[in-house]
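Subject: for your reference before the review

Hello V.,

The reviewers asked for a structural picture of the protein, and I figured it would be easier to keep everything in one thread rather than splitting it across files. Below is the amino acid sequence we used in the manuscript, unchanged from the supplementary table.
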Amino acid sequence: MSVTEAMEEGEEEQPNLGDEAEEIGNEAKQVEEEYSWPVIRFDVPPHRAYHFCHQFRTPSNPNNFLKGVKWSPDGSCFLTSSEDNTFRVFSLPENGSDHHESACDEDSYAASIVVSEGESIHDHCWYPYMSASDPVTCVFASTTRDHPIHLWDAASGELRCTYRAYDAVDEITTAFSIAFNPAGTKIFAGYNKCLRAFDVHRPGRDFEQYSTIKGNKEGQSGIIAAIAFCPTHTGMLATGSYSRTTAIYREDNMELLYILHGQEGGVTSVQFSKDGNFLYTGGRKDPYILCWDIRNTVNTVYKLYRSTETTNQRIFFDIEPGGRHLGTGGQDGLVHIYDLQTGQWISCFQAASDTINGFSFHPFLPMAASSSGHRRFGIPESNEDLSLGISGNENCASVWSFSYLSS
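And here is what came back from the structure prediction:
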């Protein structure tokens, strides 16, 4: 019996993700109204709370490097992806703020879940209403080369179900980017010149397809490499393409609202501001993150610099929960912090000795996670030389703790 069939047979017994999403969403809104975001002090360098490097390296793959890191929506754990086609889930210890600074030459603790994919990982995302207290919602989606979209159980590491897209000759086609819609009912996936939407509750080959090209020239061409939804539930989503353009659509009917030009490289990261009025885009081999006002898209508002001029890596950036600051890595191993109200550089800190390709703020604590590494082409001369000279501060993941203003 396939995983899909098993899931379909067990649908009556298992809670419905849509009902869970609505209930958890209402609780989250209530908590958010009561919760006061900590005011992070970026003028004080953060200290490394936890560090991980050795478990990413094996004798068969000593040069394995990380490709990204993302906190879970409930903040209980974070997820890393790496070049060895593997996801690792690291649970944040209880009382995560009560810790001691971690050394770079040893791992703070082992991953709680290790999930191996069959091919190179393109993208991954958490279910937006994931909560460790409800096992049904503890899932994340992934897309890999020559494989369908997988939905993984973050608590057990088991495959929940798959979502398969087929091309004109009835062969499985690979998604290059994926994202859950804000309601958590659909998975949107980016392909070459089109988007496909899968109903979360109907795994298999059922999907809705939307072409990003209208006629011969109008629209967004190229591979859709990034997808982001507006967090204020306005029904808008943004897509970034290797054609160096960013498009904004309406989710309900996929009407094309804007096409944004200005990125020097293919757009690989897009993210809305917390109030939904601004959009931030970043590209490969492009040293600037562009800020767009979606109420007036004629010109960019400002540009944020980062050292990514010579890398094809996808460099993730993130906006703090309070919505005031943005953090991004680069090839210089630094994490740069910018004030989003003014576009001015605030501070930076050394997070690793090589490229910082992932940076993610904790959803409510004054913490962040970073991932680093890049492909090295050196070949060890003997079995004893397995490290290729890589130190504990390279090809690693770290959790950072920031100082904050107490109320």
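For the response letter, the relevant points are probably these. The chain is about 5% helix and 40% strand. The first helix runs from residue 3 to 9.

Happy to draft the paragraph if you're swamped.

O.
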